[in-house]
Amino acid sequence: MNVQQSVVLVKPDGIQRGLVGEIINRFERKGLKLVGLKLTQLTDEQLEDWYVHHKDKPFFPKLRNYMQMTPVVAMLWEGVECIDAVRKLVGITKAREAEAGSIRGDLGMSQQMNLIHASDGVESAKKERDIVFTKDEVFNYQKDIEIFVYSEEERA
Ligand code: CMP
Fold first, then answer.
1. Helix or strand or coil: residue 71?
2. How far is the CA of 146 from the centre of ligand 1 (A)?
3. Which pTM was predicted?
4. pLDDT tens digits along 64-84
C-alpha cells in the first residue's frame, strides 16, 4: 500500500507549554509508527531551506526567531497515506479557528504560535526529513500491532 512518512515538529511554544508528551500520544494512539525522534536546535540555514516559500514574506524574520527560541522536537511518523491523516490531526494554521479535536484546535490560539508543524506533501516530507534527520536517525523496524491497525489488503 501507499506507505508515507510525515515530519512533525513540536515548535518552541509546544516545548514551553509542556505539550510534547500530549502531542506524541495523539500520533501514537492514531496507530502511526514512530521511525525518527530527536530534540534539535534549528539553524538559520535549515529554516531558510525549510520555509523557502515563506522566505520573502514579511513575517519570515519573526517566524525564524520564534522557531529558534528553544530546540524543537522533530519526529518522523510512518503509515498508510499518513500525510493527510497527520494534517487532519494537526488542524489548520490559525489555531484559534482550527477544528475542535485537532491538536491546534484543542491546544492553541495563535496563527504563529501554533504548536506544531506537519509536512504538507510527499515531496516536502522527503525534503524536511533530509533537513533534520541523518540516515542513521531514521529507523526501519517491524511494529507487530499493525495487524490490528490495518487490514491485510491495506498492509500488502
Ligand atoms: P505552518 O503552517 O506550520 O508553517 C508556516 C508557519 O509560519 C506557520 O505554521 C506559522 O507558525 C507561521 N505563520 C503563518 N502565517 C503567519 C503570519 N501571518 N504571521 C506570523 N507567522 C505566521
1. coil
2. 34
3. 0.96
4. 999 999 999 999 999 999 999
